[in-house]
Amino acid sequence: MYFSPLQEPSPELAPAMSFLALTPSGRKLSGLWSELARGDGGEQFDPAAVNGLPAPARRFLLRSIAPGTPLARSVELEMHGTLLLSPDRPPLPMRAHQILAPPDGFIWRARATRGLAQIRGFDRFGHGEGEMRWKLWGLIPVMRSSGDDVTRSAAGRLALEAVVLPSALVPGRGAEWEGVDDERVRFRMKVGEERVVATLEVDPEGRPTRVSGMRWSDQAGPGYDLFVAEFSGEIAVDGYTIPSRLEAGWRLGQPDEFRFFEATLDRATFR
User: Is residue 6 part of a domain?
Assistant: First the structure.
């Protein structure tokens, strides 16, 4: 099922990725983290850049990025919340640390616990490939997956999560906007070989409330399925205002929804 389990904010979760650094795969992951975390050269946000965009896109970008703010290439996030592995199981407490740099890549490192059991690992997309790798107590493999389907799903996730890095959606940085109505707008983003179309819903003040799009999944059989994230609250840092809380899952709002993820942001650092 193409979603991520979750790693506690601590010195171990620094970009050096020290707990994996002694293995070849760990060194590769650490190198990707450092690559994604590199800054973008200091171009600043000019509100005139959104002229001509559909009204919801203008409201969203003008609320999300203060004038003169450096346009970040990536955001580093720490979060806590719960993860539901299947509809018939109780949710697992989780903590996670993520680097997000649409459309280039992401790494999501996390830890989920139940009693004495602890699952830790990562999901990632980088250099055109997706991967998932999770272990019990950090030692016993419970999931290791890659290949075309994982890559398709990871690419879709990366594009949809661009809402929490608004600079990735400024005109001229890879996203194309199309109006729907006064509350909804679509953006298109090419991630690797995947062309993702997302619908963003925006309130009258410019706050994003919901993003949805078709994303590859095996949750209800292999194929594209409706993935939805809902946003609430706000956190303001480094000239950016982004949602502080999100819930996500398959087909939210439909009778057969599977709402498997909820998280509150503890920290955001833009680079």
Answer: no
